[in-house]
Amino acid sequence: MSASPPNLHPSETPASADDPRVVAFARLLGVVDRLRGENGCPWDKKQTVATMAKFLVEESYEALEAVERKTDADVAEECGDLLMVIALVARIAQEGQRFDMGTVAHGVSDKLVRRHPHVFGEVVAKDAETVVANWEAIKKEERKDKQEDASALAGVPLALPALQRAARVSSKAVSAGFKWSNAEGALAKVEEEQRELAVALEESGMARDPKAKVSPAQRAAVEHELGDVLLASAFLASYLDLDPEALCRQALTRFEGRFRAMEQDLPGPMSAQTLPVLMAALERAKKAKG
What we know:
By secondary structure, this protein is mainly α.
């Protein structure tokens, strides 16, 4: 199934055929066509849309890591790898007459034009918050027209990492009007959930002994309250305009660095050290590593 010629919005200005970006993209399509062609690569020719799905996830995370930790050259390389996977998926689908890269490109272009009426239409949006609110309202109408889930929380993939998904759900809830006036309300909610967790831990005895024999109901209560603490913390991050997924990754990186430094600082095997010795070494590593 090939894409039909697009009905361009009057204010659209497509890139010219000799634009270096267009030339580079055309080259990529040609390379992918060759890989899938008669004398192409056995591995590439063996793939299906389904087998390529995992590479979409893998390459996305490699691109994310490059953005956070590496150089522009690394970011460009990893984005290229992700683009290659998308191009290959589209080429495979094209061979089955399902859709092609034109369908993908026209579809997302139509969506961008439709969801940016402040750029391609007469709607006025003077700040990012108004843009987001308009975007969510347009998406809600689109889902309604398609008879899809019309909830304000619809459209957040279940497969997202939990903290990232929490951030998206929080953002959608806030855009819909379910919000505190500032981050103080979100912080108070974290503190409330922490108190409820403390009660559940005390009642189960797990605070004193994580391996304590507890009833299924008591363990379920601890799991419930700890989950609420994590969720409330992720929501607080959103109120502070921070990414909880990125914050957790950064905290893990700091901990890993401190832990490795602590290992080098110990007078012997870690298993032979007392907790005060370990904590003192960790504190020294924290001061040294930041």
